[in-house]
Design goal:
By secondary structure, this protein is an alpha+beta fold. About 5% of the residues have low confidence. The strands form four sheets. Strands 5-6-7-3-8-9 form a six-stranded mixed β-sheet, with helices on both faces. Helices cover about 25% and strands about 30% of the residues. The protein contains eleven helices and 17 strands. It starts with a strand and ends with a strand. Helix 4 crosses helix 6 and helix 5 crosses helix 6. It folds into two domains: about 200 residues, P-loop containing nucleotide triphosphate hydrolases (Rossmann fold, 3-Layer(aba) Sandwich); about 150 residues, Coagulation Factor XIII, Chain A, domain 1.
Length: about 425
């Protein structure tokens, strides 16, 4: 590597084996129970006949192994002091790349050269031991990052003040909330001054004030000459914090350039890939968002919004009945900068139905004053006080052609920044079960 290159990635690839199942001479009790629940009489006949070779038997069948490449032929370099934003749709390979750079996951092929100590914040509580106290975990995590005890002690008070956990410093972190966890984890990673800081979208767990605090700290880190790799769906944060960008698509580098150029490329690719309401929106562990529609006051699906009128979303989703689930909607402009947030639980104390099924409801939001332009909505289901379950980028997009129809002297984009505006419901949503 050159004198000022701290990360060099060459032909990096990571593959996983999926749908791989070997024939076994036994069947677990849960498999028998599941099969009998689906077709009890057929299974009983099969068991009584002692037939274990057909599809109703007990032997598991072979399934051809399939290689899924999360990353393939990825190459790039990062110079010392460079702040690079890594962006792309969910499943593009961003988190896999960061795990390899953080030495959490081994690559399948290619190689990575890193010069300097790396601090990673990839998920809540990374590197923490749940049975140890906050105080003990600060020293443990610092030691893992290669810091001496003297270095950790010199930064200890700053970390505690930043994390705002002084009262709970000697409490085992397993009793911390997710917000306390991530505040302490970020505080350690950002204050112990590693040469390279790697941050994933974990900051989305915190509240707006905490996010603002973290963005400010990351700005200080960047200005201090340290190298930062930052993954986020918040294009405003990427634009303000980073100098260069890397766009991943389907595990490959689709574009590399300045932050502005990378965001523009990503935004254009998102718009070209969005095929409307009938595209596959994917699934989470507990929920599946099946359809999102923007409606006018008459209940007709539209592709435009008139400022000054209620913004009406109709969302069809499936849930397994897990308690404390919520739905959020992020409003984004044409550069994918997040402007505002609507949240059933956070703003209205409402959770999704606790009974499994498919439901439909309307999210009727207070009128917005939007400037003319193209907007989109990211829809996410989430586990309350934990994290996202199902995140859909650009679940729906729409145009605003005429801004301020009632002659209001200001528009939304000029008056509010990311996290400063809450989109509130006019009335509590009514969930209608359709299946």
């Amino acid at each position: 590597m050159g004198n000022n290159v701290v990360i060099k990635v060459e032909n990096l690839g990571k593959s996983y084996q999926i749908n791989s199942r070997k024939t076994e001479s036994y069947t677990a009790l849960r498999d028998v129970a599941a099969r009998m629940a689906v077709s009890p009489f057929r299974k009983i006949r099969s068991l009584m006949a002692g037939n274990s070779s057909n599809t109703g038997g007990l032997r598991r069948s072979d399934t051809t192994a399939e290689a899924f490449w999360a990353l393939r032929d990825v190459s790039f370099t990062v110079k010392q002091g460079e702040v690079i934003g890594i962006i792309g749709r969910n499943g593009a390979g961003k988190s896999t790349l960061l795990k390899i750079l953080s030495r959490i996951t081994e690559p399948s092929n290619g190689r990575v050269q890193i010069k300097g100590r790396v601090a990673s914040l990839l998920e809540v509580g990374t590197g923490f031991h749940p049975e140890l106290s906050g105080r003990e975990n600060i020293f443990l995590n610092g030691a893992i990052l290669g810091m001496s005890r003297a270095e950790i002690k010199s930064k200890f008070d700053e970390i505690v003040e930043f994390a705002e956990v002084e009262k709970f410093l000697d409490t085992p972190v397993k009793r911390y909330s997710s917000g306390m966890y991530v505040r302490l984890a970020f505080g350690v990673a950002a204050h112990l001054e590693p040469e390279i800081l790697v941050v994933d979208e974990v900051l989305a767990v915190g509240d707006a004030e905490f996010q603002k605090k973290c963005i400010g700290k990351m700005s200080d880190v960047a200005r201090g000459g340290r190298t930062v790799l930052f993954v986020s769906h918040n294009m405003a944060a990427v634009k303000s914090l980073t100098t260069t960008g890397l766009v991943l698509q389907a595990g490959k580098v689709a574009f590399s350039g300045s932050s502005d150029e990378s965001i523009d490329f990503y935004t254009r690719s998102i718009n070209s890939q969005n095929t409307g309401h009938d595209r596959n929106l994917g699934s989470g562990s507990h929920t599946t968002v099946k359809q999102v529609r923007l409606l006018d006051n008459a209940g007709v699906a539209v592709s435009h919004y008139n400022p000054g009128s209620p913004l009406i979303l109709e969302i069809t989703f499936q849930t397994d009945g897990t308690a404390a689930l919520s739905i959020e909607a992020f409003l984004l402009d044409s550069t994918r900068s997040k402007l505002a947030l609507a949240s059933l639980h956070q703003f209205h104390g409402t959770s999704l139905p606790g009974r499994p099924g498919i439901y439909v409801f309307r999210l009727i939001l207070e009128p917005l004053w939007l400037a003319s332009g193209r907007y989109s909505l990211d829809i996410t289901t989430s586990l309350v006080n934990s994290g996202w379950d199902h995140y859909i980028e650009d679940a729906i997009d729409f145009d605003v052609i005429t801004s301020n129809p009632l002659g209001h002297p200001w528009d939304f984009k000029q008056s509010y920044g990311y996290g400063a505006f809450a989109m509130l419901c006019r009335e509590s949503p009514v969930f209608t079960q359709i299946e």
